Amino acid sequence: MPSFRLTILCEDRLTERFLRRLCERYHHQVQEVVVSPSGNGDASAWVKKQYAEQVKKRRSKNYQKQLGLLVCVDGDEVGCSARQQEMNQALQAANIERRTPEEPIAVLVPTWSIETWLAALCGKSDIVEDHSYKDEAAYRSQARDLFGDGAKDSATCRSAAEAWKATTALLPSLAEAYAEAKRVRM
What we know:
The protein is of the alpha/beta class. It is built from 7 helices and 4 strands. The protein has a 4-stranded parallel sheet with strand order 2-1-3-4, sandwiched between helices. Strand 1 (5-10), helix 1 (13-25) and strand 2 form a beta-alpha-beta unit. The protein is globular, with a radius of gyration of 16 Å.
């Protein structure tokens, strides 16, 4: 029997694949996936809007046991703490109360993007969070090795999920995510 039945809310399909693998590792059932439509503007803004709706939806089903929400939104240039604040503000703007500590709603924020976490979890030791790697030639070369095609995406996500919490050299946003993921027993 799964520990939790989760709704996943995220920005892109690569993040979805990683979160699904993470759910499998912890024996959680993915009940629903809500992914930002590609090419429709700022994905993080879309996730913030959907977050308020998904929190409201989840709370309307409080009578159901082991029902949770797993959200992942890129920190981009604002970082983890600022993005968490923005998520809280999205709830406030929709007249929805903030999460309580015992609510099974986890908000994970990789800085800059999920690729940063995947690279770190897959053993890239030189990853730091003070800038984005996406525009650098060296990062694109490493990314091709990790995320070259659909098969590599899957293998990368599997390896990263297996390394979740086993990584000793933590990125700050990954360390925060480990604490946040405890809300849904990950």
